[in-house]
Amino acid sequence: MTTAGYEAIIGLECHVQLRTRSKMFCTCPVQNEGAPNATICPVCMGHPGTLPMLNRAAVSLGLRAGLALGATLHPESIFSRKHYFYPDLPKGYQISQYDRPLCTGGVIHTELGPLKLTRIHLEEDAGRMLHGDRSTVVDWNRAGTPLIEIVSEADLRSPEHAELAMRTLHRVLVEGGICVGDMEKGHLRCDVNVSVHRPGTPWGTKVEVKNVNSFRFVARAIRFEIERQIDLLDAGQRIIQETRTWDGSKTVSLRKKEGSADYRYFPEPDLPPLVVAPDEVAEARAALPGVPLDLWLAARDVAARQEWRDRYGLGDYDIGVITGDPDLERWFLEAVAAGGQPRAMSSWVQGEVQRRNNIGQLGQLAPRHLVEAQRLLDAGAVNRDAVKALLENAANTGVSPEAEAEAQGLSMVSDEEALRRIAAEVVARFPQERARYDAGNKGMLGFFMGKFMAATERRADPKIGSRVVLAALEKR
Length: 476
Ligand SMILES: [Zn+2]
Fold this sequence. Notes:
Layout: E1 2-3, E2 6-17, H1 56-68, E3 72-73, E4 76-77, E5 79-83, E6 93-97, E7 103-104, E8 107-110, E9 113-124, E10 128-131, E11 136-139, E12 146-152, H2 159-175, E13 188-197, E14 207-212, H3 215-234, E15 242-246, E16 251-256, E17 266-267, E18 274-275, H4 278-286, H5 293-312, H6 316-323, H7 326-337, H8 342-358, H9 367-378, H10 384-397, H11 401-407, H12 416-429, H13 431-438, H14 444-455, H15 462-474
Parallel strand pairs: 14-15
Antiparallel strand pairs: 1-2, 2-12, 2-13, 3-7, 4-18, 5-6, 5-17, 7-9, 8-9, 9-12, 10-11, 13-14, 15-16
Helix pairs in contact: 1-4, 2-3, 7-8, 7-9, 9-10, 10-11, 12-14, 12-15, 13-14, 14-15
């Protein structure tokens, strides 16, 4: 993104909660909710005399993430202590990995281009502060929860690309069974590094926006930060290296950024080097359907789309809308299974069903009702407004459109114009039989009459029917 001659330089650091039953270095269950401080023990509180014990399930998921993202897995890595003082950190340090992480490299592939990864390392989460009106509760339940941190290169240039990368990462983590992926519970949180500069000049000072936990907020926070920094530079001011947070509408300063030296990293003396055996890697690989997982998923999407094109004759836009919403997809598939013509069902599902679903008014409407609605329309029994009224009635009462049309005496089709159109279509469908009729076999009239009545679900007025079929056959 270039705004008024500036270019944005963006990188991501994502914290991913691994899908394990227990914490990283003790046997406390992973349970982020519930009563504060219900799931803590002397180990995750760092009491003197306790020793951390590594949870191999977390290692396995870390390896799986590395494989899924095409990273290099290291047979030996080191845990380090990262020191800082904050009430949510009972030990006064966090066990993380520093100069020798579990994985290095890797890529997130997106339609807007690749995002190269620097590293993936294991670490434990901190607790959190629950701020009330008059007091703050320190809740350490989350302290010690297994995480991986995924650090990207500063390859991104636009908020859209950053959002897409985060969406792709989320999908890989969820489909790979690495993370449950509930964004609202903070299972995937991204810190965004943003700086701006004029192309051809050195990169600007970077600002970190912490803990953005929604796809849309990532793009909005980056957009806001780019504009804020450009405004400052245009006003002749300097960018301060700092940590900010997204409050839902803007970024707000939290603190001046510490350099990494401030954390006084040193190797964790209570844990041996993390050695990964080849069979652990093989086991992690066996849990994935393909690697890199994002490319495998994209290929599966293409194949699925092609299958939909072939099977239902729908265009990419329609397929995207219908398969992009599990509700619409189910409605479409059930309507087609109930005998609906795919294109017609696609249009009902994207119109009436989506509209009603959005406002929670599907009521007793069922997929087979769409099939009936379309049959009534095709037979010319009712017009579009009347069909909508029948569907409305079906949603409210559960009475099917055909039953209701019957009850209202709408089922006998006597719209001559509609019947003439159906007769022309029927005649055009059987050119050989048409030729026999033309050659003098007048008995073929019965054949065409039968096909015509079938096409109208036997709802056409037969007197008008024989007249329009004869007219269609006589027309040269
Ligand atoms: Zn514990």
